[in-house]
Structures are given as C-alpha cells and as structure tokens.
Amino acid sequence: MQNSKKLCSxxxxxxxxxxxxxxxxxxxxxxxxxxxxxxxxxxxxAQKFSLQxxxxxxxxxxxxxxxxxxxxxxxxxxxxxxxxxxxPPTPSLESLRYAVNVRPTEELPLPPVTTWxxxxxxEGPAGTRNLLGIITSVQCVAGVVRRVEERIxxxxxxxxxxxxxxxxxxxxxxxxxxxxxREAYIxxxxxxxxxxxxxxxxxxxxxGLGCEKLTFDMLLEPEEITSENCLYLQDCEGHEAAExxxxxxxxxxxxxxxxxxxxxxxxxxxxxxxxxxGSDSLSxxxxxxxxxxxxxxxxxxxxxxxxxxxxxxxxxVQFLAERCVSEEVGHKLAEQMKWYDDYLEAxxxxxxxxxxxxxxxxxxxxxxxxxxxxxxKSGTAPIIDVLEPAEKPEKRGLIYAATPASDIVCGxxxxxxxxxxxxxxxxxxxxxxxxxxxxxxxxxxNEMKKRWFDMIDISAGDILTGKKTIEEVGTEIFRExxxxxxxxxxxxxxxxxxxNDMCFFNPAPIT
Amino acid sequence: MQNSKKLCSxxxxxxxxxxxxxxxxxxxxxxxxxxxxxxxxxxxxAQKFSLQxxxxxxxxxxxxxxxxxxxxxxxxxxxxxxxxxxxPPTPSLESLRYAVNVRPTEELPLPPVTTWxxxxxxEGPAGTRNLLGIITSVQCVAGVVRRVEERIxxxxxxxxxxxxxxxxxxxxxxxxxxxxxREAYIxxxxxxxxxxxxxxxxxxxxxGLGCEKLTFDMLLEPEEITSENCLYLQDCEGHEAAExxxxxxxxxxxxxxxxxxxxxxxxxxxxxxxxxxGSDSLSxxxxxxxxxxxxxxxxxxxxxxxxxxxxxxxxxVQFLAERCVSEEVGHKLAEQMKWYDDYLEAxxxxxxxxxxxxxxxxxxxxxxxxxxxxxxKSGTAPIIDVLEPAEKPEKRGLIYAATPASDIVCGxxxxxxxxxxxxxxxxxxxxxxxxxxxxxxxxxxNEMKKRWFDMIDISAGDILTGKKTIEEVGTEIFRExxxxxxxxxxxxxxxxxxxNDMCFFNPAPIT
Lengths: 511, 511
What we know:
Two copies of one chain form a homodimer. Helices cover 28% and strands 17% of the residues of chain A. The first copy, chain A, is α/β, with parallel strands linked by helices and 511 residues long. Chain A folds into three domains: 6-86, Archaeosine Trna-guanine Transglycosylase, Chain: A, domain 4; 131-257, Rossmann fold; 270-496. Chain A is globular and about 80 Å long.
C-alpha cells in the first residue's frame, strides 16, 4: 500500500481509489489541484479535502480503505473534517485471513551498513548504553532512591568513566495493588523484564521496602536474590544507613560495569522499538513510512524491530493479519486485539477513545484513519511473532508487541521488552524521552522541525515537498539509528535529560 | 471501643470479649500471662496468641469483634496465625444503621492550643507552606518541567526567601487515556483540585503539551486560562524557549507568592489528613488510637480531619455508619463502599487483596483485623460528611474521604482534597512523603523508632510499655501537627526531600 503513493507538491493522494487528499502545505482557496479541481476553500496543512463529490452515506477513502462514511453530501474541493465522517465498524476478528501476504525477507531492501558498536551481553540483544540500573520494587522507596541517584551521579560516576549513567526505574506498582488479580501478571512481568534490560549488562540493584506485596521472589530467580543485588530499606538502620547501603551496592556494580566495552556487532544483536505519538495526518505519509523503510532495512540485516499500540492498529488489523508468517502468529495477534476490545468495553469506551484533540487538529478524523497511518511504521517485512505487553522477544525480525497506544505506557512496555533504542514519530511534537534507552524523534513536517529545531532529531518533511523519497529518508533514519545505538550521537531528549516516568500498564485493580 | 483497652506490659487485650491478645514485646515460651495462662510457645512482638481454647469454627475475637473463624481447634497460649483463621464475610451494606452512635462534638476533649500560624487563603483552608505550584496536565511534559524545577530552585528561589519551595506535580494522566470513560472524572477531579491546593496560595502554573486529551478548559475556569497561568509547550519555539518561558512565568508567580505571610489563625482554617501504611497488629493499639485522639482534639478545636482507605474500613463500616451524623451521610458512605466492592469484583478480587506480607509479618491475620486497627485513627468524633476520591470538603469536622488504601494513591488523593499536612501511622516503617504538604510519621512500636531514629517523627510505643497513655501520645501528636503546620518544625521526609509520585487514582481504561 505505501508503495503506491502518488505525491505532488500540493497534496498527498495515496492510492487511485482515494476520494480525499491531504494538503502537504497550507493551500489557499482557489488552488488548482487537477485540471478540473480547484479548492473551494482554504485547506490548512495536514487537513483533508475531497477530490470528487461524495454523497451522504458513501465511503470516504484514504490509503485505499474506507476511513468513514459521509454524514452529509460533500462537494469536490472542500475540507473534510471529522464531523463529516461516521467511524466505520471495527474490523471483525473472526474473518481475518492470516499469512496470505507474507513478503519474503530476501525481498526487503539491503541495508547499507551491517554492523554497529554495542555492548554485548551473555544472552539476548546487546546494549546501546552502559548503565547502572537501579530498579525499585515498590513506589514507597522512590524518594530515597532518587536522592541516592543524585549522589551516585555526583560522587561515584566520575570515577567510572566507562559507565554512561545511572538509570533509576521507579513506578507506581508494587504495593497497594491486588497482587493476585487476574491481570496482575502484566505489570509484574514489566518489572521483571526491565530488571534484565540489555543496557544494564546483566547487573542490577533492586530496592524494596520490605513489607510490600511485590516481593523479590516474584521478580528474581532464587540465585539472583543476593546481598549484592537486593536491598530492603526496612533492613537498614535509618535514613543515612539506607543511603549508604545503596551507595555501596552501586560502587560494587560500577566496578563491574566499568569493564564493559563496545564491540563491533552484527545487526542481529540490535533490538529497537517503533512508536508514534502526537500524530497528524501527514505522519502516515512521511515519518511513519520512512521509519517503516528503516525497519525493513534493519530486519533484512537481521535486527529485531518491535511495533505496538493496540488501538492504533485495531482498524488496520486485517493488513497485519495477512503479513503474519503463520496462522499461529495470526491467532496471537487476534487474541491481543480481543483482550483490548474487552478491556475498553469494560470501561465503557471503544478504540475510538484513542485520537486526541491534537490528532484531530492535525487532520486525523478518527481512529480508522489514524490506524492506517500508524501501521505504516511497520514497513513491509513479515510479522514473525506477537508479544503480550512487556514480553521479551524470542525470535528475530519484525514483531508486533501489543501495548497500549499511550506514548507514556507503550514506551516503558517496549523498554521492558528490552529495546536498546526507540524511534518515535510525531506530527505535533513532544519532548518525550526514556532514561533506559535513547529515543530518536522524527517529525512528519519540516515546519515542525523548524519550530522545534532543538528537540526533533530528523524531519521526514522533505518527502512532502518532493525533495526526498521515502527510501532516502528511511535510509537516513536507519543510519541515525546506528549512530545513536553505537553511542556516536546523543539524541536531543538525552542531551537535556528529558525523561518520562515508567508508567507500566496495570489493568488490575488497586486496593 | 478504643476506650475500653486493658493493657499490661506483656500483651494487649482490647475488650472483655476478646479471646486473643497481642504480644507487646517478644515473649518467650512459658511466660505467665494470667494466673492460669502460660504461653506454650514463644510469641514474637505484634503476634496474636489465644487467651483460651478456641474450637474449630468458633469466632476469633479481637477489638470485641469477630476477626475470623478458627479453621482448627486452638488451645490456650499458642500463636494464632493467619492460616488458623477463615476471613469473616464482608459486612452487609443493606443492614447498616446510621447515626445511632453520634458523640456530640462538645464531649470531645478540649485542645490545649487553639491557634496556629498559617498562610491564609481567600477561601478554603489556610496553607501550611508557601509553595510555587507547577502542575502538569500531561505526563509528556514531565521531563521538561522537572528540569526547569531544578533551575528555579537554583536560580530563582534564593531571590524570594518568603517562598518555601517549588512544587512540581507530575502524574501519569492527561493523554493516552479514555478521557470520556465512565470513571475518567476521578483522575480529572484530582488534577483540577490539586491545582487549587491551599499551599499554592491561589496561584499556579499549568503546563501542557498542546495536543493532549486533558485540555486546560477541563481543569480551569475560563477566566483562569491566561498567559500568566498556562503554557502549552507546543506553542514554544524549541527546548530553550520552552524552559525560558516557564522560568519567566515562575518569576512572576514568585513575586506574588513572596508577599504571603504566616498569620495566627484559628484551628478552623486547618485541614489535615490521616493515613496508615505498613501497619502491624500494634498499629491499631498505639499509633492509630493516639492519632485518633489527636483528631478528636483537632475536631473539637474546629479543624477538619480526613480519614480514608476504603478497603481498610470496609470490614468495620458498621461502626462508621453508626457515627455518621445523618442517614444522608450514611448513604454516601455505603455508596462509596459499594462502588469499591464492584470495582474489585470486576478485577476478580475482593477487599482481602489488601493486606501485605508486611502486615502479616506484623501479626495482622486478614483484612477484618486490619480494618479494626485502621479505623481507630478516626477517633470518636461524629462523621459529618463523606467525600468521593479527591473531592474538596465543604464542611468542617471529621470527614471520611473515600480513597484507595494504597499509601501511594491515598496520599495524592487527600492532597487533591487540600490537606495541608498528613499524619502517617506505620508499624513496619516507610520513607513515604509528599511534596505538596508535610507528612508526620508516627510508629506503633519503640523498636521501630529506635531502628529508624532519623525517619520516624514520633513513636507511640510508650502506650505499649505503659509509660504513656493514648491521651498523652495523642496530645503529643496534636502539638507536633501544629508545630509542623506552623512551619516551626520540618518532619524528616521533608528534610531529606523524600517525596513520592502523585499516583492519582484512575479506574478508567487507557488507550
């Protein structure tokens, strides 16, 4: 689908079937689009307009798919807003066809570079950074650990130049929760897995309070529960003793981590995540397909790429189902969709609760349109597996990691799955960042990059102006990924320390 | 009930009906309790032992109520553990009797002091601190705002000595959520209300991103949405401009706040919260009843006191119902219990998901026993109103503010209700703290205070040793509340900056 794009400098028309186009720039009234089509009104950048008359009840088509039904007669050359569209029904999960459109990996484009410099681990993907990981098992201890974090950065880190930083993982889970609830395994798995993040090099310090529900044995193997790895604050004699004890553990770990060295590694040791947030209707035309092309290059080179966000693929799930390598993987995909459908229904909403006011200002009418743009970031590679939230991948290639679409929850979930880097596409702009791995930000429009010149790493906007192709920007993103993963470049969010909280997904009740 | 305590230096027996007692210290096997009762085994401090033979199926009675049914024959003088008790059924909400045990306020003990020094506000309770409040409407901006917080503290605060600190409220809500879900009003109300916290003196800075679902108009009145109060980061031209813009807003607000002065105020302008966490079976004997006595003094003096934690009062709700001043207030109480029963049931658990391993190590067998200890902190005053989570009180006196029992969620909820100070009772110890108001920590045992001498503000343990009465320790707590509220004393958690995250309660789905 994203290969059949027909672009002009004024507007984006994605397939021959489309009866709406998206303005690539602010277009004044009267602008001539085709020989017989003039705009009847001004169309702001990223907004949709009709290419032909669309009668009430008829489908409105973009990306070659129905993104809604006209709620009124729409004449040619006018803006098509969210209010003129009725959301189409959710695609049925029963009629999905699996594995009928699997592109052989050999057909994917060859990457221009096939190695990077990472910190190899005994097992699993390599690290992109060398971090001292301090993980909390419960929110109660967050204040203490954050204070010690500053002390470590100030007093210890300068002595261990081989270590990039200290990374404290605090979260709201661990106690005051129904630890045996049906869905409690979801946040628990996230915490279990973040402890083993590849950037921590197999080392960690786990800090608990001592009376909480999430006990160390729920997070660690018996042989990992040692006095070098774990500390309960209730076992310390007061505040100063607690801080000192953590400092001592930290110094022991820093000595070990300081010996880690970057090595030239094959792409097969790289695991990255793709996410989009604050999207506009151009995200699905420029930034996301370019990221998808970068993903294809990575997968062809042997790397593993996760993409996520259940409510943002739900309306395009039929296209993902076709790309699943087997019936089994397809069923896993459908199961994740079903779980989320039920979860939302229990809260009295559906997947159209997803789009934000910013998405809508950015021209996205509804979740059906948003989903088509969102899945573009998955490129064209076969989907070799489907993960539950925060699960670790066991296969290599393109993987659908089912997570909430919320940037703030998807990021930590992919982080728990072990990504060494996240590529984040945005239309409206966000300072979002993670402390456990670098985040590269790609915007959909040059106007955004001009405005946030010191926050957005790469603009995909030249795809809209016709100056560059999707493949060119995609290759640029691919090269940026390797630069950042190899530690040769620091993305903006890390330069300023703009890091968001680890909002792990917890669908279970609190007590 | 808590007036009929019979204490000896060895064990605590709360009413004549009780067939179990709690060890006030570690008691060796053979210890003589009464003329004819010797301990058959060693009983660790805070653990229960049987005062007489209890046959299988018979009620086990503590606080004069059935805390469970014996699952086996229990002979006299042995430890009674959680495994020997079957949890009693949840008290029915249909058969509650309202307003039948309302102690007239005039009968409450007279406070020894009736004024304090606070920052008066145009309306509502006075502030206990003078803080520059910077509130985020969405988690996306947290990284930026936290960095600016450090800059403000370093570069601006020294110029405004009348301002105590800058207080940044970040949270996981605001976007990636189902903003129109049935229960979305709960977190939204919390954020609305925390903006108006009495310690912010009617001033605030609200920082959003610009594309999120939780828009400023959902949090503010139209006349409050001004360029002095609000900023969307997407309206700034880049990172440096965004930080500079927040710094400028901060300086404007600091100039205003710097003029606030403490004044001698009546207790009626004081609003405080009571919470317990990491409880043990002595919490309900020493720390909580002493805090309850302090609450009685405050209420008698005209102050407002909130107590909370639905799952921790659920099994003692019949006693609270009797103390409600009217049928209407009683029905509000029952409604909150019902809501939470349903919420837990939807997640596949019940209120007995509440007790923690630490509670159990501390001798609490189940939620029925825990609840009886927990409600002791409400003292004996009439319950004049019931609030939903994070609602602001409109009446003065003792109020039940329904919140989750989780320390980490109850605290922010009470903070959103506007408390100027929280009194936190603990058996096992926690470094818990809030940045928006001071937290005084009271422990149940002297052993805890000895161990965490520099983290626990007051020990109620002398009640157990017989050195002090509940009234004496309660008066000590009352005086400490006024010292801290008046800014003459800084509790430990604030000395170290041990502050937990604002984990606002969100029972609605995320997207």
